Amino acid sequence: MPGHHDTAGAAMPTYVGMPAFPDAARAAVRDTQLRRNLAHATTTIRAKRITAVGELADWAELRETGKQIKDHTIEHLGHYLRLLEEQVTARGGTVHWARDAAEANQVVTDLIKATGETEVVKVKSMATQEIGLNEALDAAGIHAYETDLAELIVQLGGDRPSHILVPAIHRNRAEIREIFRREMPGAPEDLTDDPARLAEAARGHLRERFLAAKVAVSGANFAVAETGSLVVVESEGNGRMCLTLPETLISVMGIEKVLPTWRDLEVFLQLLPRSSTAERMNPYTSVWSGATEGQTFHLVLVDNGRTATRDDEVGRQALRCIRCSACLNVCPVYQRAGGHAYGSPYPGPIGAILSPQLRGAGSPVDDSLPYASTLCGACFEACPVAIDIPEVLVHLRSRAVHRRTERAAMRFAAWTLRSPTRLAFGQRLAGTAGRVLGRRGHIGRLPGPMARWTDTRDAPVPPTETFRDWWNRR
Predict the structure, then answer these.
(1) What are the tens digits of pLDDT across the range 191-208?
(2) What is the DSSP letter of 186?
(3) Angle 325-137-305 (CA atoms, 0-180°, nearest 5)?
(4) Environment class of residue 428 by beta-carbon count within 10 Å: exposed (0-12), middle (13-18) or buried (19+)?
(5) Quick one: DSSP state of residue 172?
């Protein structure tokens, strides 16, 4: 595992250098313990979600409303982001803009350094995983303590998250007990694998971190533009501690998380808990608007490929995602391969369409992700904001095919141009073919992928004598 560490408090391994999905999945499916852990967890969550969603007679209407709100916001994203900035600033907060991961990490690092602190507590955040914030802080001599139980398990184990909602879903209770006993300072000698005892040990470990921390870093599930309010939902209470106790709060948020109004938020506070934790509502819903009394607040808005994704008429629907993980829990590929095989903080079906767009295709991992699916459609049926993941997968596959065709064409052109003999033969062949295809002084339609050229412009018939032939004759 590239960058793997086994020491307590080590930086989380990055996804750089991960193999393409087929190679990573091939290794993962041979791990029988991993497959048992995943099958048990996803089956349990899936069954509970079906019950929770079935309680609402208007679920289909809620789903469609959520889709329309997201599409409207993405279409007018610039307007709502400006409004959000105005409202946060008016309420005493400071807004920072980051074009990419490097800029976001630098902003957060500089803000923490300005406080003089070298330790921070963190609320679970997909955005900070996406930009590799923990690793960037570690390189700057700042240690980030994850306070979410599952994130803590992953961090202490020198591991990577493998699920959006339950990062340690690939670990069973016995494995977690061994990680705690080996890596957690002050872990009880008689610690068992009883969930209550494990949670108690984690609380004891984190309590002093909460009380001593001067700086906290969070993400945001949503932001309400009309009031400049940020929203974090969670199940353990660790988020509430991080958001309220420290003197400085830094929230890192992808620009697509903004919602226009409080009425819009109502829809998503029904969709998200039932789709993710199968609860009627989240146990802790924290909302704050700008800086609160006794606390300095900074909001870092991150693009990191989202604007480019928004420009794709088909792929942009991935920006509707509310990170509920419902698509992971119904995916037969994820259930067998696990999250690490996707080589991204975003695993499963949503990761297969989001990661290649945010990171930009070109690496073996990102080129392979659109093929990490059977196209069965279960993810689309489960998605609470109706992202047609199979449609986007097919769209991204076609783009990958075009890129491969393009690369093959460039290699063939280079091979041809390196030899005067091959170039001359190719010119004569192209001229002959053009004259065969030409009618009334121009070529009506070229064959294969070259047809796109003649569909939009006239192509003249090549002359009977090439410049090379004319030169040799003269």
Answers:
(1) 999 999 999 999 899 988
(2) T
(3) 50
(4) middle
(5) -
- For 235, the 3-state DSSP assignment is coil
Looking at domain 21-310, which of 3.40.50.720, 3.40.50.10420, 3.40.50.300, 3.30.565.10 is its CATH number?
A: 3.40.50.10420
CB distance 212 to 121 below 8 Å: no
Q: Which two tokens stand for residue 358?
A: 């945010």
- pTM of this structure: 0.81
Pull the structure tokens for residue 169: 């879903």
387: CB partners within 8 A, 6+ apart: 317, 318, 320, 321, 327, 350, 353, 379, 380
Query: Cα–Cα distance between 168 and 133 in angstroms, integer?
Result: 19
Q: Give the whole-angstrom CA distance, residue 201 versus residue 369.
A: 38
Tens-digit pLDDT profile for residues 30-40: 999 888 989 99
Encode burial over 436-464: b for 16+ CB neighbours within 10 A, e otherwise.
Answer: ebeeeeebeebeeeeeeebeeeebebbee
Over the range 213-246, which residues count as b (16 or more CB within 10 Å of their CB) and which as e?
Answer: bebbbbbbbbbbbbbbbbbbbbbbebbbbbbebb
List, by residue range, all CATH 3.40.50.10420 domains of the chain. Answer: 21-310
Query: Do 226 and 86 touch, CB atoms closer than 8 A?
Result: no
